[in-house]
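Reopening this one. Same input as before:
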Amino acid sequence: MDEPTSAQDLGQQHHLLQLVRQLSHESQFSIVAILHDLNQATRYADKIWLLNQGKMFAQGSPQAILTPDTVSAVWGYVAEKLITQAGNNVLI
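Same output, byte for byte:
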């Protein structure tokens, strides 16, 4: 899926990603999705393959890959990692 949430409002984005994740787990399907929203990738992905200029930069769990250090190395932005009350990691 190439940016499946790009034309959706916020509620629909989360509903779609929750549904895809649920169907994937129930049916034991693998889903490959391109997401530019790092927080959505962190929240809904089981594994991350991070590309930098078309080459594999890192792969693994979202919590291990999408860190402030990685964001800084790939995008040149110093992010701050927060943890929500629900336990979700958020990069700002």
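So the earlier flakiness isn't reproducible anymore. For the record, The two ends are 25 Å apart (CA to CA).
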